[in-house]
């Protein structure tokens, strides 16, 4: 933008430069496979049981649903910060990232093998990219059993190393996999990520709109959005929706050695918090942060405004 001013000696043109727009590489715009590759050291990505293995769910086609050749789960090996690593990622674009028999077995087995490696004296860094609505309803009990195996594998593995979970969006992380997120040693979230046991629509359906209006977007983000979850201590790291920012946060967890003890192991803290909560009062994220003894979030706009590109 140019501005001209008259001076005694003539016309002087002052050039006022508008700051360049910094374009970020949005992590949420990547596929599950691309997300996994973006976290591993360049050139080290190697997929196990990839789409050409055609390890599909046998339960979808009989119900009129076209299966996916990797069943919506990516298991990748490589290095992270020069150390051996395994990254498991759910594809939120296939069946909402729902867990069934096959993709659940892929995730559980990858984590169990990582624990085996540690017990054999071979350190490995595990990362879980969570983009899922929970169990795949079409596979019901098989999905529940798989999620139980995933939970057990995370708890076993975190004895040896941080297990880093990432909830970036756009689906979020709900149901039994919301519990899996809570079992991770450290959880990295973006503002676009959402985390809970039940999603807004399920709460409204079961308890009524008076309890939770799923159309109230400010309420949704102030309750289960990534910024709110970080402010209330249910996620350890809040980062921008940017590939480098997510990767740096994951690297940072391993460099720091993870959070000890893991949040889900701090049972007495959770019981003390529950004792301070009045169930007749609707709490805000600020209220819950104060009850938890955490710094009160000062920017309420960051909690209630809908993030750019957020799921509707």
Descriptive labels:
312 residues, alpha/beta, 2-enoyl-CoA Hydratase, Chain A, domain 1, seven-stranded mixed sheet, two-stranded antiparallel sheet, 36% helix, globular
Explained architecture:
With 312 residues, the protein is an alpha/beta fold. The protein has a single domain (27-304), classed as 2-enoyl-CoA Hydratase, Chain A, domain 1 (Alpha-Beta Complex). The protein is 36% helix and 15% strand. The protein has eleven helices and nine strands. A seven-stranded mixed sheet has the order 3-4-5-6-7-8-9, sandwiched between helices. Strands 1-2 form a two-stranded antiparallel sheet. Helix 2 links the parallel strand 5 (83-90) and strand 6.
Briefly characterize the structure:
With 312 residues, the protein is of the alpha/beta class. The protein has helices spanning 32-39, 101-119, 140-157, 176-183, 200-207, 217-224, 226-231, 243-256, 267-276, 285-291, 300-304, and strands at 2-7, 10-15, 46-48, 73-80, 83-90, 125-129, 164-167, 186-190, 237-239.
Outline the fold blueprint:
Layout (H helix, E strand, L loop, with lengths): L1 E6 L2 E6 L16 H8 L6 E3 L24 E8 L2 E8 L10 H19 L5 E5 L10 H18 L6 E4 L8 H8 L2 E5 L9 H8 L9 H8 L1 H6 L5 E3 L3 H14 L10 H10 L8 H7 L8 H5 L8
Parallel strand pairs: 5-6, 6-7, 7-8, 8-9
Antiparallel strand pairs: 1-2, 3-4, 4-5
